[in-house]
Design a protein that fits this description.
Elements: H1 12-31, E1 39-41, E2 47-49, H2 77-80, H3 82-99, H4 103-123, H5 135-154, H6 165-176
Antiparallel strand pairs: 1-2
Helix pairs in contact: 3-4, 4-5
Length: about 180
């Protein structure tokens, strides 16, 4: 019992020790000078050295390289994202032409838009929202899909502009077997 006849509650002692620990952490944080641009605050608020290497186990999504704005921050929103808008508007025009029964031209335009997206991803350092993953992955994905759409549009029946005789032989082998 204390001098006043009260028994100290069990919750008073831990509060005092937590306050002392918080004061020590704040004091330590004032002493720390961060000179490294690659530092992040830890759980306790004290800056710690963070590595730029990918962790063994991913806990978050990394921002893709080239994922910044394609125009300065004071530019209007559409101007900041011109690469993705150019690709999407071209694909939209291709879809409109396809809906208007101009299939081959519409599909060629869609494929060309995807190929242009691959070229933009390769040439322009900051492509905004056109950057989804790494530069290599984006280029392979956009380029591969664009090339496939263009080739299929050129081989489209009737009157294909591109013919592969071995495809006809493959079809006969798979259907006849």
């Amino acid at each position: 019992m204390s001098a006043e006849g009260k028994v100290p509650e069990a919750s008073e002692a831990p509060v005092a020790s937590e306050a002392a620990e918080a004061a020590e952490v704040a004091e330590a944080a004032e002493d720390v000078t961060v000179r490294d641009p690659v530092s992040a605050p830890g759980a306790d608020g004290v800056p710690r050295r963070a590595t730029r290497r990918f962790p063994l186990f991913t806990r978050d999504t990394a921002r893709p390289e080239g994922g910044g704005r394609a125009a300065p921050g004071d530019a209007p929103a559409p101007a900041r994202q011109w690469p993705i808008l150019a690709v999407l508007l071209t694909v939209g025009l291709g879809l409109l032409l396809t809906a208007l029964d101009v299939f081959r031209v519409g599909l060629l335009l869609i494929g060309a838009a995807l190929l242009a997206g691959a070229v933009l991803r390769w040439v322009v350092p900051d492509v905004g929202m056109l950057a989804v993953r790494s530069r290599f992955t984006d280029m392979v994905t956009y380029g591969g899909l664009g090339l496939a759409v263009v080739l299929l549009a050129l081989m489209m029946q009737p009157h294909p502009l591109l013919e592969f005789p071995w495809l006809q032989d493959m079809l006969h082998v798979t259907v006849d077997s």
